[in-house]
Amino acid sequence: MFFVFLRWITGFVFLVSGIEKLVSPPENFLYIVRSYQILPGWLAGPVSFLFPWVEFFAAVFLILGFWLRTALWVALCLAAGFVFFVSQALFRGLSISDCGCFGELIHLQPRQVIILDLLILVGAGLCLRRLNQSARWSLDACYARNK
Asked: What is the pTM of this model?
């Protein structure tokens, strides 16, 4: 039950983050992506458009337990990417006071978001390691039973 709860919490965090970015004006997240100064200008637009959808679908798949192994790997990669992007901004001394992870809904400072993302990274890793226990109450488990 612990791993199912961990999977749901991870999915919920990505769901809130993804939905907030999807309902906000696209320029808001584009500004955040550009503020990290790591992507070339031509890539910032497509990334800022696609990224909220990746978060949203990863969240839905985690919560429902659909393609669970893949969804957990996506969550793991997203969290690792967040840690990298925010850490490089801190090391470079970029003036980012809010990570932009949750748009206008929740404001987190870079150090706070690194801790949150490390927790997500560990949680997704634990769920992957205990995939059978994480898959309890999932669509994957229902489908496996009906074969």
From this structure: 0.89
